[in-house]
Amino acid sequence: MRRIRVLGVGMGPQHVTPEVAEALRSVDYVLAAQKSSQDGLLEARREICRVHGDVPLVAVPDPERDRDAPRDYPRAVADWHEARVAAYEQVLLERPGDVAFLVWGDPSLYDSTIRIVESIHARGRAQVEYDVLPGISAVQLLAARHRIVLHEVGRPLHVTTSRLLREALETGQDNIAVLLNARLELDGLEDWQIWWGANLGTPDEALVAGRVGDVLAEIDTARAKAKEAAGWVMDIYLLRRVS
Ligand SMILES: C[S@@+](CC[C@H](N)C(=O)[O-])C[C@H]1O[C@@H](n2cnc3c(N)ncnc32)[C@H](O)[C@@H]1O
Fold first, then answer.
1. How far is the CA of 180 from the centre of ligand 1 (A)?
2. What is the mean pLDDT of residues 215-235?
3. Domains located in the chain, CATH noted
């Protein structure tokens, strides 16, 4: 049976593990979403394919997500997910061979690829089996760059998105990794400690750490600078209440 391989590739070719490199060389082509005509992450995937065995990459235009329906976010994401499943399935039916998806960071963290591949598998039109190999996530890279442990001794780590940060704070979380940031809204948290990073693992990487109230302006400037340099910005931070 043909195989789909879901491969975590970290933040670029330098993070591709020997295990993932071997899996990548084993496939006939890579399937990747194309979000726009200038898709930085697609270019990063092309570079990974080039470095690790010149594997052909088939770009699939990513269906639009309905961003006008913020109140029904889960529904909008589910519809988008279905549209992506159908688009990938179509390519799988047209092009034979084993296939890889290159997942930015690690497939287990805020990424839909495993769910999409599960759906393709469950629909049964493209007869496939699949496996998943891990990669270095942005959370790990943030910790390494700041040379920190993600939690204090024996304490928990809460991982969430900026959209759900307030909810986490209300439930008493005091050590929180935050992804998928639209903008930093940290009112009332001025005395907390923040470790922030943008475009980690790329030439435009930016890092800021300190007391929230002291470094927010610096983060805003660094974020804008990273975006200007790369044409895109992805940032992540760890927030910790100082006791
Ligand atoms: C859709 S999630 C994917 C996470 C990914 N699967 C991982 O393991 O890191 C995208 C979010 O991850 C974080 N992220 C991904 N790459 C990053 C990078 N190079 N630098 C900083 N944050 C990054 C950002 O919070 C971004 O909004």
1. 7
2. 94
3. 2-133 (3.40.1010.10), 138-240 (3.30.950.10)
